[in-house]
Amino acid sequence: MARIVAGIGTSHVPAIGAAMDNGLTDSDYWAPLFKGYGPAREWMRKTQPDVAIIIYNDHASAFSLEFIPTFAIGVADTFQPADEGYGPRDVPVVVGHPALAWHLAENLILNEFDMTIVNNLAVDHGLTVPLSIMFDQPDVWPCRVIPVCVNVIQYPPPTGKRCYDLGRAIARIVASFDEDLTVVVFGTGGMSHQLQGERAGVINQPFDIDFLDRLVSDPIGLTERPHVDYIREAGSEGIELVMWLAMRGALGESVRQVYRHYHVPASNTAAGLTVLEPV
Which of 6, 20, 140, 273 could join 261 in a cystine, given CB atoms 3.0 to 4.6 angstroms apart? Predict the structure, then answer.
């Protein structure tokens, strides 16, 4: 059967992708961040998962305010990099795993998660930057990908508990898939940041570090955090961290932290990365 072997929580800052695409990773500004990605990439090279389920949010590339699914899943054979206004990133086409994606879609819906099924989905930096963070710049992405998109753009987003429960359901359904696959689950976005208004550029390092700690030791406690706490403590885009709870829910009760990296600033954002394995 298929099995989830790890979870990855990572920021998906678009400037990280731009730094890679434009050869700036060794610059004084970016080098400390990218140096910290080295051990995680080495772990990924050794792990060699067959499939990555990437939980991310779209940034008005595939969806708009005219159509806002709370949860959506991509079931296509391939997913093209989105044009976010300056042309698509020069990264490989994302190859899907339709059989597992449809298995997830069917069983999530029958387990009362109202998934929007997407047959044609352009994927933006929310998904491609995490792939770049973990796989660097290959000619072909070395694993297949199932995109799971969460609305954290338009109020009301799903609660942390609902995301955590989604992850738990994903774990059960992956385990029921009758093919020998190793799967990693990404939760993306965050950490603390705000892109607009008087608090633009806010960084709350104690909040971020506490979140990383409790992701290991107290995920249930994190699920009880209301939306307003994320906004107050971590800025308006801090709400993206609920997607990390979906990843954590897929790993079961206990995890061990394989690796952690935290850096400020990456553009106007605190960038975090954690690799967790179930125990």
Answer: 273
